[in-house]
Amino acid sequence: RHYPGTMRQRDWRRHSRLLVPLVVIVLLIYYYWTRGNKKTEMTDKASKPTSLRAEGKDFLLHGKPFRIFSGAIHYFRVVPAYWRDRLLKLKAMGLNTVETYVAWNVHEPYPGTFQFSGQYDVTAFIELAHSMGLYVILRPGPYICAEWEFGGLPGWLLADPTMMIRSTHSLFMDSVRKYFDHLIPKVVSLQASKGGPIIAVQIENEYGSFGSNTRYVQKISDMLVACGIEELLFTSDNEGGLHRGQLVGVFKTINFQTNPEKMLESLKKVQGRERPLLVTEYWSGWFDHWGEKHHTLPIKDIIETVGKILDMGASINFYMFHGGTNFGLMNGANYDDKYQPTVTSYDYDAPLSEAGDITLKFLELRELILKHSKELRLDVPPNSPKSSYGKVTLNRMILLVDVLYHLPSISTDRVGPMEMLPRIQLYGYILYRTMFSNGLGSVQINGAKDYGLLMIDSKPIRVIERHEQQELNVGHKQKSGVLDLLVENSGRINYGSKMGKERKGIEGSVLLDGKAAAGWTIYSLEFLPEFLNDVLTGALWKKAEFEKGMAPAFYRGTFTVSDPPTDTFLKMSGWTKGVVVINGSVLGRFWNIGPQQTLYVPAPWLIQGANVIVVFCLGQPQPDFSVELVDAPILG
Prior knowledge:
The chain is α+β, with helices and mostly antiparallel strands.
């Protein structure tokens, strides 16, 4: 038996008081030693001489003076069969480099599910550019803007209500790290230091227009280096963003369209006058929003501005050289006083058209560039043939309500956004259904994004628009009925401070005559392959018959291509709003408010023989259910 205060206990207490601090000191020494080793290893990687060096007023590539003449092509906006054609035309304009973004949301469509094949095979695109003698500037994000859905971020990030995108928030950074762990190893061996074409890699994208957290930008930089990136790292911003969120010692570049003297002077002030000048984005045109005018940039303006950029000795990347198409449901959106969804075409009024055609802008720029470039002059390749396949009648139809039982659904007591469903929905339409039994005078919808219809007993009653709060007078006098709220994700915002709040569907509550509604069934229409294959090719179709106030429906028709297919354009005159599917693949959206009136259909999407067109129309179809395949685009 030992009593308090014995000699043995007093010795143990004295020794334990000394032992605890000693253990803490040892652990701290070990932590900082390992942390320092990791930092030293990363610093060693980052400080290793890059193939492209930004020292002095000129770039050096492998020790020799080099000037970047680059053009942007996004592999995910172009069918792979046309990659070579687009790259060959890029070379023919006198360019020596292709720049591309990498869109996270196409490579990791769901958490932990990765795809790098077909149109998303970024490695194949870079290897092809290399085989054609082109260098590559890679912009892997994680955020890319690009007028692409959610700026390239995957919508499933928003499933967590605490998510803070483009920040050091642990959930976001962990997701980026897992993505980079899959992406970067695919391009490491394609760096110039290893005999590949990649000469520069961008850190994040235009972060100065979003925030000023340099810790976040540094962490993205560190991740790239840790994954094996050895080439020149750089940032790009517009003039206003140059002064925010920049990393000391990292090469800076600028994005603009006009006033080159002022813009490049601003870059010199931030970067120093003894560094090369690079315009990472010279905006060669602009993009369009639904319901607004079609944008073009006059040739004389572009020639004057580019001429000044080149006369000042700067390197340049044309954003875009070739815009391509927002295939599927992948268009982005902006918010400038109001929500502005981007159209399906990403023609951009670029030197190479959406269909890959040489433009007068291309020819004028080619002559200008070849005065400043020592690149080998190539002949201008021919344009691809186009065909007018004529009118196609979509004479079979299925009402949306008749295929609901084929769609994923859940039962719940309250509505909510698509990203927070037990089975995450990312794109397309979401339908909220409930019953009422005492008549219905008004419906108040809080936080609907973005556009849709209120229907009672499958009949359209009112249009749903994007508002914080929208009260719709219904005036339904019959006691009981079925209320459907069909809401479209028209494209997540891709730029600005509102991005992090882009959950789609209905975020808030729905009040029926002032009372919260319960007992909902929620259906997801995403145009997934299994739905398109199982339902839209099944036996549910009936003869299409026109009537006023038609409910949302699918319409189907076929046309025959006798010879090998060529590019064409689908004219949607008379149809209101919806989505087009060609031979089982989602082509894109249409909307009669314009400016875009035709959808580009690339020849590789067609077959020699019978081709199937399916149109999902939210509102009224063309009275005779016809569409027309023409040989030229109508963009505005």
